[in-house]
């Protein structure tokens, strides 16, 4: 499936042009949340066009190493989740014969899809739009479409491992030569970065619904985004169903929220519902209980709710501990009132 997604039918060079590259050299693993920025030139421009085999021979091996650096989120200590909140990207840019600055980019985050982007895409500038129109069909045939904040050509690939870096590198080089028209007469420059969405101290001030879903799944809490509301996660652990509601949109980051409300609904007899509401609201729990509605003459639904505020900056481990503690308190309350 990966081979189909990457369109490996368009080779960088045939067998007569270049032998398969050797295994790229090992690189030093990057520390979680460490800010890294590297730039350089993969292939220097020259007055006359270079043969494809020369470009491949010069650029492919280091490109495989760079792609592997972007895609490999393995922690040397073996502990999962240390890189959560980090991201990496690699940009390859060059100047076309018509003077248009073009680029190919990959973007990677832990446990997420690899995003491949080619630009420029839709632009108001006539010359850049003319370039986009020229490459559009070739990129659409490779599975790209216009999207993202920059309105460039982009597609997502399944979460890949470092073993897939040669395939990704070959596809990037094929796009540069076959679609953009890179022929070695200009520099092929690169820029690599690792950075973090976390603040100093490894804290977050907001989370999106998709990010919270990814975290829950990593924490062993099965979840899915609600069918009716895109700021609601329906989740469960080994013992009970619960909801995670996101409130207070972040003023600077679209899609992120400042508050998480953990919610459990319990359908109880009228007597047990009254006892539970009195127990929770009559003691210094941070959780609150609300009798929401009468289901029948004998039963009532109770809503247990607990809020987690992210606005001041909290660690991801704090968010996990708060959710787990809420679920444990609910279990203790259920046992106390005799609800299995």
Describe this structure as you would to a colleague.
The chain is α+β, with helices and mostly antiparallel strands and 340 residues long. It has two domains: 2-196, no CATH class; 203-336, Yope Regulator, Chain: A, CATH 3.30.1460.10. The chain has seven helices and 16 strands. The strands form three sheets. Strands 1-7-2-3-4-6-5 form a seven-stranded antiparallel beta sheet. Strands 9, 10, 11, 12, 13, 14 and 15 form a seven-stranded antiparallel beta sheet that branches. A hairpin with a 4-residue loop joins strand 14 (288-294) and strand 15 (299-309). The protein is elongated. Mean pLDDT is 85; it is low at 1-25.
Present the secondary structure layout.
Blueprint: H1 2-6, E1 36-43, H2 52-71, E2 86-95, E3 101-108, E4 114-119, H3 126-141, E5 145-147, E6 152-157, H4 165-180, E7 188-196, E8 203-204, E9 207-208, H5 209-218, E10 222-225, E11 232-236, E12 241-249, E13 256-269, H6 270-281, E14 288-294, E15 299-309, E16 314-315, H7 316-336
Antiparallel strand pairs: 1-7, 2-3, 2-7, 3-4, 4-6, 5-6, 8-16, 9-13, 10-11, 11-12, 12-13, 13-15, 14-15
Helix pairs in contact: 2-4
